[in-house]
Amino acid sequence: MKYAFLVAGVLALGIGAVSAQQDIVKDRQAQMKATGRALGGTLSAMAKGDKPYDQAAVDAAFATLTETATKLPALFADSTKGLKEGNEYSSSPKVWDDKAGFAAHIADFSKAVSETKAKVKDLDSLKANVGAIGKQCGACHETYRLKS
Amino acid sequence: MRTDHRVLKRFLILFAFFFVVGLGVYWWLTIPATVAASTLPAHTPDVANGKIVFNAGGCASCHATPKQDDKHALGGGLPLTSPFGTFYAPNISPDPNVGIGRWSEADFVTALLKGTSPQGEHYFPAFPYTSYQRMTSADARDLFAYIKTLAPVTTKAPDHSVGFPFDLRRNLGVWKFLFMDGQPFVADSSKSPQWNRGAYLVNALGHCAECHSPRNALGGIEEKQRFAGGPNPEGQGWVPNITQKGIGDWSEKDIAYFLKTGETPEGDTAGGSMAPVIRNTTQLSDEDRAAMAAYLKSLPAVEGPPKPARKG
After folding, report:
1. Mean pLDDT, to the nearest integer, of B146-153?
2. Which residue from B160, B237, B256, B295 puts its CA 20 to 30 A from A121's CA?
3. Which residues of A touch B240 (CB under 8 A)?
4. How many domains does chain A have?
Protein backbone atom coordinates (compact mmCIF):
# COMPACT_ATOMS: atom_id res chain seq x y z
CA MET A 1 0.00 0.00 0.00
CA LYS A 2 2.76 2.36 0.96
CA TYR A 3 4.48 1.44 -2.27
CA ALA A 4 1.37 2.31 -4.29
CA PHE A 5 1.23 5.72 -2.65
CA LEU A 6 4.86 6.22 -3.41
CA VAL A 7 4.37 5.38 -7.07
CA ALA A 8 1.30 7.59 -7.26
CA GLY A 9 3.21 10.38 -5.59
CA VAL A 10 6.14 10.13 -7.98
CA LEU A 11 3.79 10.05 -10.95
CA ALA A 12 1.91 13.08 -9.67
CA LEU A 13 5.18 14.92 -9.21
CA GLY A 14 6.19 13.98 -12.73
CA ILE A 15 2.91 15.15 -14.21
CA GLY A 16 3.13 18.27 -12.09
CA ALA A 17 6.60 18.98 -13.47
CA VAL A 18 5.45 18.54 -17.07
CA SER A 19 2.43 20.75 -16.56
CA ALA A 20 4.65 23.37 -14.93
CA GLN A 21 6.72 23.40 -18.10
CA GLN A 22 3.55 23.59 -20.17
CA ASP A 23 2.57 26.58 -18.02
CA ILE A 24 5.79 28.31 -19.04
CA VAL A 25 4.76 27.86 -22.67
CA LYS A 26 1.37 29.39 -21.87
CA ASP A 27 3.02 32.29 -20.05
CA ARG A 28 5.31 32.78 -23.04
CA GLN A 29 2.36 33.04 -25.39
CA ALA A 30 0.48 35.37 -23.04
CA GLN A 31 3.54 37.61 -22.68
CA MET A 32 4.04 37.72 -26.47
CA LYS A 33 0.38 38.70 -26.95
CA ALA A 34 0.68 41.40 -24.29
CA THR A 35 3.84 42.66 -25.99
CA GLY A 36 1.97 42.84 -29.27
CA ARG A 37 -0.85 44.80 -27.65
CA ALA A 38 1.61 47.23 -26.07
CA LEU A 39 3.41 47.80 -29.36
CA GLY A 40 0.68 47.44 -32.01
CA GLY A 41 -2.35 48.37 -29.94
CA THR A 42 -0.76 51.35 -28.21
CA LEU A 43 2.56 52.70 -29.41
CA SER A 44 2.31 51.99 -33.14
CA ALA A 45 -1.41 52.81 -33.16
CA MET A 46 -0.50 56.28 -31.86
CA ALA A 47 2.36 56.63 -34.33
CA LYS A 48 -0.03 55.75 -37.17
CA GLY A 49 -2.53 58.30 -35.91
CA ASP A 50 -5.20 55.71 -35.08
CA LYS A 51 -5.14 56.69 -31.41
CA PRO A 52 -4.38 60.02 -29.73
CA TYR A 53 -1.11 60.34 -27.87
CA ASP A 54 -1.59 59.47 -24.23
CA GLN A 55 1.43 59.58 -21.92
CA ALA A 56 -0.09 57.26 -19.31
CA ALA A 57 -0.81 54.61 -21.96
CA VAL A 58 2.71 55.07 -23.37
CA ASP A 59 4.22 54.55 -19.93
CA ALA A 60 2.11 51.43 -19.40
CA ALA A 61 3.15 50.06 -22.78
CA PHE A 62 6.83 50.60 -22.02
CA ALA A 63 6.34 48.92 -18.64
CA THR A 64 4.98 45.84 -20.45
CA LEU A 65 7.83 45.87 -22.97
CA THR A 66 10.41 46.17 -20.18
CA GLU A 67 8.76 43.29 -18.37
CA THR A 68 8.94 41.21 -21.55
CA ALA A 69 12.63 41.96 -21.96
CA THR A 70 13.28 40.84 -18.39
CA LYS A 71 11.18 37.69 -18.61
CA LEU A 72 12.25 36.43 -22.03
CA PRO A 73 15.17 34.20 -20.94
CA ALA A 74 13.01 32.35 -18.38
CA LEU A 75 10.12 32.05 -20.83
CA PHE A 76 12.39 30.01 -23.10
CA ALA A 77 13.80 27.82 -20.32
CA ASP A 78 15.68 24.69 -21.44
CA SER A 79 12.98 22.51 -19.92
CA THR A 80 10.45 23.80 -22.46
CA LYS A 81 12.34 22.62 -25.53
CA GLY A 82 10.12 20.60 -27.85
CA LEU A 83 6.90 21.13 -25.93
CA LYS A 84 3.65 21.57 -27.82
CA GLU A 85 2.91 25.17 -28.67
CA GLY A 86 0.14 27.20 -30.29
CA ASN A 87 -1.61 26.58 -33.57
CA GLU A 88 -0.10 29.54 -35.37
CA TYR A 89 3.52 29.66 -34.35
CA SER A 90 6.11 27.63 -32.55
CA SER A 91 9.67 28.15 -31.40
CA SER A 92 12.43 27.02 -33.68
CA PRO A 93 14.79 24.45 -32.14
CA LYS A 94 17.44 27.10 -32.85
CA VAL A 95 16.28 28.89 -29.68
CA TRP A 96 18.01 26.14 -27.72
CA ASP A 97 20.58 25.00 -30.28
CA ASP A 98 21.99 28.48 -30.83
CA LYS A 99 21.70 29.90 -27.34
CA ALA A 100 24.29 32.61 -27.84
CA GLY A 101 22.55 33.94 -30.95
CA PHE A 102 19.18 33.89 -29.23
CA ALA A 103 20.55 35.62 -26.13
CA ALA A 104 22.09 38.32 -28.33
CA HIS A 105 18.65 39.01 -29.83
CA ILE A 106 17.11 39.33 -26.35
CA ALA A 107 19.88 41.76 -25.40
CA ASP A 108 19.22 43.80 -28.56
CA PHE A 109 15.50 43.90 -27.81
CA SER A 110 16.15 44.95 -24.23
CA LYS A 111 18.43 47.73 -25.39
CA ALA A 112 15.95 48.93 -28.02
CA VAL A 113 13.19 49.10 -25.41
CA SER A 114 15.19 51.06 -22.84
CA GLU A 115 16.67 53.43 -25.41
CA THR A 116 13.33 54.10 -27.07
CA LYS A 117 11.65 54.60 -23.72
CA ALA A 118 14.23 57.27 -22.86
CA LYS A 119 13.67 59.08 -26.15
CA VAL A 120 9.88 59.14 -26.34
CA LYS A 121 8.45 62.34 -24.86
CA ASP A 122 5.65 63.22 -27.26
CA LEU A 123 4.01 62.14 -30.51
CA ASP A 124 6.87 63.29 -32.75
CA SER A 125 9.54 61.52 -30.74
CA LEU A 126 7.32 58.43 -30.63
CA LYS A 127 6.91 58.44 -34.41
CA ALA A 128 10.62 58.91 -34.92
CA ASN A 129 11.78 56.17 -32.57
CA VAL A 130 9.15 53.46 -32.09
CA GLY A 131 10.26 51.54 -35.19
CA ALA A 132 13.41 50.41 -33.39
CA ILE A 133 11.41 48.05 -31.16
CA GLY A 134 9.46 46.20 -33.84
CA LYS A 135 12.69 45.88 -35.80
CA GLN A 136 14.14 43.80 -32.97
CA CYS A 137 10.95 41.71 -32.69
CA GLY A 138 11.17 40.94 -36.39
CA ALA A 139 14.91 40.28 -36.34
CA CYS A 140 14.39 37.48 -33.83
CA HIS A 141 11.15 36.12 -35.33
CA GLU A 142 12.86 35.80 -38.69
CA THR A 143 15.10 33.00 -37.45
CA TYR A 144 13.78 31.74 -34.14
CA ARG A 145 10.06 31.54 -34.75
CA LEU A 146 8.43 28.98 -37.03
CA LYS A 147 5.02 28.95 -38.56
CA SER A 148 3.05 25.91 -37.59
CA MET B 1 -0.62 -10.88 -97.08
CA ARG B 2 0.39 -8.17 -99.53
CA THR B 3 -2.47 -5.91 -98.36
CA ASP B 4 -1.46 -6.40 -94.75
CA HIS B 5 2.00 -5.18 -95.56
CA ARG B 6 0.68 -2.18 -97.37
CA VAL B 7 -1.50 -1.21 -94.38
CA LEU B 8 1.43 -1.57 -92.04
CA LYS B 9 3.63 0.51 -94.30
CA ARG B 10 1.01 3.24 -94.51
CA PHE B 11 0.60 3.19 -90.78
CA LEU B 12 4.33 3.55 -90.25
CA ILE B 13 4.53 6.43 -92.69
CA LEU B 14 1.67 8.19 -90.92
CA PHE B 15 3.23 7.51 -87.55
CA ALA B 16 6.57 8.93 -88.68
CA PHE B 17 4.78 11.93 -90.14
CA PHE B 18 2.94 12.79 -86.93
CA PHE B 19 6.04 12.11 -84.88
CA VAL B 20 8.01 14.62 -86.92
CA VAL B 21 5.15 17.13 -86.80
CA GLY B 22 4.87 16.64 -83.03
CA LEU B 23 8.58 17.15 -82.63
CA GLY B 24 8.34 20.28 -84.74
CA VAL B 25 5.48 21.67 -82.65
CA TYR B 26 7.37 20.89 -79.45
CA TRP B 27 10.47 22.55 -80.87
CA TRP B 28 8.56 25.61 -81.98
CA LEU B 29 6.59 25.84 -78.75
CA THR B 30 9.66 25.66 -76.56
CA ILE B 31 11.89 28.15 -78.38
CA PRO B 32 13.18 30.51 -75.67
CA ALA B 33 11.85 34.01 -76.37
CA THR B 34 14.26 36.93 -76.45
CA VAL B 35 14.18 40.71 -76.69
CA ALA B 36 16.41 41.98 -79.51
CA ALA B 37 18.52 45.03 -78.76
CA SER B 38 17.24 46.61 -81.97
CA THR B 39 13.66 46.61 -80.64
CA LEU B 40 14.56 48.64 -77.53
CA PRO B 41 13.76 52.34 -77.91
CA ALA B 42 16.31 55.04 -77.10
CA HIS B 43 16.65 55.37 -73.34
CA THR B 44 18.91 57.18 -70.91
CA PRO B 45 19.20 54.97 -67.83
CA ASP B 46 18.01 56.53 -64.58
CA VAL B 47 20.11 54.94 -61.83
CA ALA B 48 18.00 56.45 -59.04
CA ASN B 49 14.89 54.82 -60.49
CA GLY B 50 16.90 51.62 -60.91
CA LYS B 51 17.46 51.61 -57.17
CA ILE B 52 13.71 51.91 -56.55
CA VAL B 53 13.12 49.00 -58.95
CA PHE B 54 15.82 47.03 -57.13
CA ASN B 55 14.10 47.54 -53.77
CA ALA B 56 10.56 47.09 -55.03
CA GLY B 57 11.59 43.99 -56.99
CA GLY B 58 13.18 42.42 -53.94
CA CYS B 59 16.32 41.38 -55.85
CA ALA B 60 18.49 41.34 -52.73
CA SER B 61 16.19 38.93 -50.87
CA CYS B 62 17.34 36.08 -53.08
CA HIS B 63 20.53 37.29 -54.76
CA ALA B 64 22.42 38.91 -51.85
CA THR B 65 25.12 36.63 -50.51
CA PRO B 66 23.60 34.86 -47.47
CA LYS B 67 24.91 35.31 -43.92
CA GLN B 68 26.33 38.79 -44.32
CA ASP B 69 24.73 42.18 -43.93
CA ASP B 70 25.53 43.92 -47.20
CA LYS B 71 22.37 43.63 -49.26
CA HIS B 72 24.23 45.03 -52.27
CA ALA B 73 26.71 42.14 -52.44
CA LEU B 74 24.82 40.12 -55.06
CA GLY B 75 26.91 36.96 -54.95
CA GLY B 76 23.89 34.64 -54.89
CA GLY B 77 23.97 31.18 -53.37
CA LEU B 78 20.77 31.29 -51.30
CA PRO B 79 19.06 27.88 -51.58
CA LEU B 80 15.37 27.85 -52.54
CA THR B 81 13.85 24.47 -51.84
CA SER B 82 10.87 23.30 -53.87
CA PRO B 83 9.09 20.05 -54.72
CA PHE B 84 11.15 19.95 -57.94
CA GLY B 85 14.57 20.33 -56.38
CA THR B 86 16.78 22.96 -54.81
CA PHE B 87 17.53 26.13 -56.72
CA TYR B 88 20.46 28.36 -55.86
CA ALA B 89 20.09 32.06 -56.59
CA PRO B 90 22.80 32.97 -59.10
CA ASN B 91 25.42 35.67 -58.77
CA ILE B 92 24.00 38.82 -60.42
CA SER B 93 26.78 41.15 -59.34
CA PRO B 94 28.65 42.93 -62.16
CA ASP B 95 31.55 40.47 -62.00
CA PRO B 96 32.51 39.54 -65.59
CA ASN B 97 33.31 35.89 -64.81
CA VAL B 98 30.72 34.63 -62.33
CA GLY B 99 28.18 37.48 -62.44
CA ILE B 100 26.47 39.47 -65.17
CA GLY B 101 29.41 41.74 -66.02
CA ARG B 102 29.51 40.62 -69.65
CA TRP B 103 25.78 40.89 -70.25
CA SER B 104 24.37 43.37 -72.72
CA GLU B 105 21.38 45.47 -71.75
CA ALA B 106 19.21 43.35 -74.09
CA ASP B 107 20.45 40.18 -72.32
CA PHE B 108 19.27 41.63 -69.03
CA VAL B 109 15.89 42.76 -70.37
CA THR B 110 15.45 39.32 -71.96
CA ALA B 111 16.21 37.58 -68.66
CA LEU B 112 13.64 39.62 -66.72
CA LEU B 113 10.86 39.90 -69.29
CA LYS B 114 11.20 36.56 -71.07
CA GLY B 115 12.91 34.33 -68.52
CA THR B 116 15.62 33.44 -71.03
CA SER B 117 19.36 33.42 -70.33
CA PRO B 118 21.99 35.03 -72.58
CA GLN B 119 22.89 31.48 -73.66
CA GLY B 120 19.34 31.12 -74.95
CA GLU B 121 18.10 28.71 -72.29
CA HIS B 122 14.92 28.92 -70.25
CA TYR B 123 15.37 29.95 -66.64
CA PHE B 124 13.57 27.94 -63.99
CA PRO B 125 10.50 29.82 -62.74
CA ALA B 126 12.05 30.01 -59.26
CA PHE B 127 13.16 33.27 -60.86
CA PRO B 128 9.81 35.10 -60.80
CA TYR B 129 9.70 36.15 -64.45
CA THR B 130 5.98 35.43 -64.62
CA SER B 131 5.74 38.63 -62.55
CA TYR B 132 8.72 40.50 -63.99
CA GLN B 133 7.32 40.08 -67.52
CA ARG B 134 4.93 42.91 -66.58
CA MET B 135 7.83 45.28 -65.90
CA THR B 136 8.39 48.13 -68.34
CA SER B 137 11.58 47.75 -70.37
CA ALA B 138 12.57 51.22 -69.10
CA ASP B 139 12.46 49.98 -65.49
CA ALA B 140 14.41 46.87 -66.45
CA ARG B 141 17.09 49.00 -68.13
CA ASP B 142 17.29 51.37 -65.15
CA LEU B 143 17.68 48.36 -62.89
CA PHE B 144 20.50 47.06 -65.09
CA ALA B 145 22.25 50.43 -64.84
CA TYR B 146 21.85 50.40 -61.05
CA ILE B 147 23.20 46.86 -60.61
CA LYS B 148 26.19 47.87 -62.76
CA THR B 149 27.08 50.46 -60.10
CA LEU B 150 27.36 47.80 -57.36
CA ALA B 151 30.57 46.04 -56.36
CA PRO B 152 31.41 42.79 -58.19
CA VAL B 153 31.34 39.63 -56.07
CA THR B 154 33.75 36.96 -57.31
CA THR B 155 32.24 33.90 -55.62
CA LYS B 156 30.40 31.50 -57.90
CA ALA B 157 26.93 30.39 -56.81
CA PRO B 158 26.32 26.60 -56.72
CA ASP B 159 24.54 24.94 -59.66
CA HIS B 160 20.86 24.07 -59.20
CA SER B 161 20.17 20.62 -57.86
CA VAL B 162 17.12 19.53 -59.84
CA GLY B 163 16.32 15.92 -60.69
CA PHE B 164 15.13 14.34 -63.96
CA PRO B 165 12.88 15.21 -65.78
CA PHE B 166 12.66 18.73 -64.36
CA ASP B 167 16.27 19.41 -65.26
CA LEU B 168 15.44 19.39 -69.00
CA ARG B 169 15.29 23.12 -69.49
CA ARG B 170 13.77 22.93 -72.94
CA ASN B 171 10.61 21.52 -71.34
CA LEU B 172 10.23 24.78 -69.44
CA GLY B 173 9.03 26.20 -72.73
CA VAL B 174 5.88 24.14 -72.24
CA TRP B 175 5.58 25.44 -68.69
CA LYS B 176 5.90 28.99 -69.96
CA PHE B 177 3.29 28.27 -72.65
CA LEU B 178 0.90 27.22 -69.89
CA PHE B 179 1.66 29.82 -67.23
CA MET B 180 3.33 32.84 -68.83
CA ASP B 181 1.23 35.08 -71.02
CA GLY B 182 3.96 37.51 -72.11
CA GLN B 183 1.69 40.50 -71.51
CA PRO B 184 3.05 43.79 -70.15
CA PHE B 185 1.37 45.64 -67.30
CA VAL B 186 -1.67 47.49 -68.59
CA ALA B 187 -2.97 50.41 -66.53
CA ASP B 188 -6.69 50.44 -65.71
CA SER B 189 -7.89 53.89 -66.70
CA SER B 190 -10.99 53.56 -64.53
CA LYS B 191 -8.75 53.49 -61.45
CA SER B 192 -6.64 56.22 -59.86
CA PRO B 193 -2.96 56.72 -60.73
CA GLN B 194 -2.17 55.67 -57.16
CA TRP B 195 -4.04 52.39 -57.57
CA ASN B 196 -2.27 51.73 -60.86
CA ARG B 197 1.13 52.47 -59.34
CA GLY B 198 0.25 50.05 -56.53
CA ALA B 199 -0.91 47.38 -58.97
CA TYR B 200 2.35 47.74 -60.90
CA LEU B 201 4.49 47.57 -57.74
CA VAL B 202 2.63 44.55 -56.34
CA ASN B 203 2.33 42.57 -59.58
CA ALA B 204 5.22 43.50 -61.85
CA LEU B 205 7.99 44.29 -59.36
CA GLY B 206 7.02 43.08 -55.89
CA HIS B 207 5.89 39.66 -57.21
CA CYS B 208 3.84 39.21 -54.01
CA ALA B 209 1.59 36.61 -55.66
CA GLU B 210 4.54 34.26 -56.24
CA CYS B 211 4.43 33.24 -52.58
CA HIS B 212 0.96 34.44 -51.57
CA SER B 213 -0.90 32.13 -53.99
CA PRO B 214 -1.50 28.40 -54.10
CA ARG B 215 0.15 26.48 -56.95
CA ASN B 216 -1.00 23.51 -58.99
CA ALA B 217 0.85 20.23 -59.46
CA LEU B 218 2.96 21.72 -62.24
CA GLY B 219 3.98 24.66 -60.08
CA GLY B 220 1.77 27.21 -61.83
CA ILE B 221 -0.23 29.76 -59.83
CA GLU B 222 -3.92 28.89 -59.34
CA GLU B 223 -5.24 32.04 -61.02
CA LYS B 224 -8.61 31.97 -59.27
CA GLN B 225 -6.86 32.03 -55.92
CA ARG B 226 -4.16 34.57 -56.72
CA PHE B 227 -3.16 36.34 -53.45
CA ALA B 228 -5.30 33.95 -51.38
CA GLY B 229 -2.30 32.35 -49.65
CA GLY B 230 -1.53 28.68 -49.32
CA PRO B 231 1.18 26.26 -48.34
CA ASN B 232 4.64 27.77 -48.22
CA PRO B 233 6.29 26.88 -51.56
CA GLU B 234 9.56 26.53 -49.66
CA GLY B 235 8.08 23.86 -47.43
CA GLN B 236 7.22 24.75 -43.86
CA GLY B 237 4.21 26.71 -42.70
CA TRP B 238 1.47 28.61 -44.41
CA VAL B 239 1.59 31.82 -46.42
CA PRO B 240 -1.21 34.23 -45.42
CA ASN B 241 -4.14 35.19 -47.59
CA ILE B 242 -3.65 38.86 -48.53
CA THR B 243 -7.00 39.36 -50.25
CA GLN B 244 -9.70 41.02 -48.16
CA LYS B 245 -10.64 37.54 -46.95
CA GLY B 246 -7.38 37.48 -45.01
CA ILE B 247 -6.65 41.09 -44.16
CA GLY B 248 -10.11 42.63 -44.34
CA ASP B 249 -9.65 44.19 -40.92
CA TRP B 250 -6.42 45.95 -41.94
CA SER B 251 -6.78 49.56 -43.06
CA GLU B 252 -4.70 50.94 -45.92
CA LYS B 253 -2.69 52.70 -43.26
CA ASP B 254 -2.09 49.37 -41.51
CA ILE B 255 -0.83 47.75 -44.73
CA ALA B 256 1.48 50.67 -45.49
CA TYR B 257 2.79 50.69 -41.91
CA PHE B 258 3.40 46.95 -42.12
CA LEU B 259 5.39 47.36 -45.33
CA LYS B 260 7.42 50.07 -43.63
CA THR B 261 8.03 48.45 -40.24
CA GLY B 262 7.03 44.79 -40.49
CA GLU B 263 4.51 45.33 -37.69
CA THR B 264 0.97 44.01 -38.01
CA PRO B 265 -1.96 45.93 -36.47
CA GLU B 266 -1.86 43.40 -33.60
CA GLY B 267 1.73 44.38 -32.86
CA ASP B 268 3.08 41.11 -34.19
CA THR B 269 5.98 41.26 -36.63
CA ALA B 270 6.78 39.64 -39.94
CA GLY B 271 9.00 36.63 -39.53
CA GLY B 272 10.44 33.96 -41.80
CA SER B 273 10.69 34.83 -45.48
CA MET B 274 8.63 38.02 -45.05
CA ALA B 275 11.29 39.64 -42.86
CA PRO B 276 13.73 40.13 -45.78
CA VAL B 277 10.84 41.42 -47.90
CA ILE B 278 10.19 44.13 -45.30
CA ARG B 279 13.86 45.11 -45.51
CA ASN B 280 13.14 45.97 -49.15
CA THR B 281 9.75 47.65 -48.79
CA THR B 282 11.03 49.74 -45.89
CA GLN B 283 13.32 51.48 -48.41
CA LEU B 284 10.48 52.55 -50.68
CA SER B 285 8.83 55.96 -50.44
CA ASP B 286 5.73 56.50 -48.30
CA GLU B 287 3.86 57.21 -51.55
CA ASP B 288 4.82 53.85 -53.07
CA ARG B 289 3.88 51.97 -49.91
CA ALA B 290 0.55 53.79 -49.78
CA ALA B 291 -0.04 52.87 -53.43
CA MET B 292 0.64 49.19 -52.73
CA ALA B 293 -1.72 49.39 -49.76
CA ALA B 294 -4.47 51.00 -51.84
CA TYR B 295 -4.17 48.26 -54.46
CA LEU B 296 -4.06 45.40 -51.95
CA LYS B 297 -7.03 46.82 -50.07
CA SER B 298 -8.99 46.71 -53.35
CA LEU B 299 -8.49 42.96 -53.88
CA PRO B 300 -11.84 41.15 -53.56
CA ALA B 301 -12.11 38.59 -50.77
CA VAL B 302 -11.10 35.17 -52.10
CA GLU B 303 -11.16 31.99 -50.07
CA GLY B 304 -7.77 30.30 -50.07
CA PRO B 305 -7.09 26.58 -50.07
CA PRO B 306 -8.12 24.87 -46.81
CA LYS B 307 -5.40 24.89 -44.23
CA PRO B 308 -4.72 21.37 -43.01
CA ALA B 309 -5.35 20.68 -39.33
CA ARG B 310 -2.16 20.85 -37.38
CA LYS B 311 -0.63 17.52 -36.49
CA GLY B 312 0.39 16.62 -32.92
Report:
1. 98
2. B256
3. none
4. 1
Contacts of B278 in chain A (CB under 8 A): 138
Distance from CA of A64 to the nearest CA of B (A): 13
- Would you say the C-alpha torsion B256, B276, B242, B139 has a positive or negative sign? positive
Range B217-248 burial, b when 16+ CB lie within 10 A, else e: eebebeeebbbbbbbebeeebbbbbbbbbbbe
Closest Cα to residue A45, out of A114, A126, A117, A109?
A: A126
Length of chain B: 312
Question: What angle separates helix B274-281 from helix B252-261, to the nearest 10 degrees?
Answer: 100
Tell me the whole-structure pTM to 2 decimals. 0.88
pLDDT digits (tens, 9 = 90+) for B12-63: 999 999 999 999 999 999 999 999 999 999 999 999 999 999 999 999 999 9
Contact A48 B253 (CB under 8 A): yes
Task: Please tell me whether the interface predicted TM-score (ipTM) of this complex is above 0.95.
Answer: no
- Which residue in A has a C-alpha nearest to residue B238's C-alpha? A147
Chain A environment of B251 (Cβ under 8 Å): 50
Nearest to B269 among A37, A84, A138 (CB): A138
